[in-house]
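Why do we care about 3D structure at all? Because function follows from shape, and shape follows, mostly, from sequence. That is the central idea of this module. The next example makes it concrete: a single protein chain, its amino acid sequence, and then its structure expressed as tokens.
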Amino acid sequence: KRKKSGKNKKRLCGICGALVFNMVDHTRSHTKENLLQCPQCPVQMANRTNLVRHVRTVHEKVIIKSCEPCGKGFTTDNTYKSHMRAHHNIGEQYQCEVCLKMFKHPSNRREHIQRIHVGESNYECQICQKRFKDKTKLKLHGRVHSTNAPYACSLCPKRFKSAFAKKTHEITHSGIQFACTRCSKVYRYKSQLSMHYRNCLPAESSV
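And the structure:
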């Protein structure tokens, strides 16, 4: 059999985790060098095909697909597919080409590749320099340094920085306790019991 040309093979972008055919054009979208200007608005794009599509969909509003069940028209293939998934439960899944895991949306696949396969922690906390693989985890970490505690306990005056911390605290008002199965010690928080297992029963906690 004839071998496939390497030109049609997707490559992994080390910056954002996307799998792309044209790495030169895609890299320009990150570096912002030699971008193509839309003749009708300030938008700039790295790829000429995408620029033509932008003009047709945003400025000329050319309908390229219509939904058969409800008759709604769409200017892009992506909006058509999103509509079919959201309103008619019809649509393809997107496969990670590294581990073959399936996703319903291409953005979820990109996020998965960036977080799992690219492996670089590009998001750094400006206060403590701790690094994270995605913006969401960095944002959650930021609460550690904040004095803002927007989550109030419904049973006492205590306030917390996260909904999870509030929920964990409210369990203590219910009288629920976490007992060690190997000794007589009892804890108010499950995290304290877990720490007890790690420190006092390391062999069993690692099983």
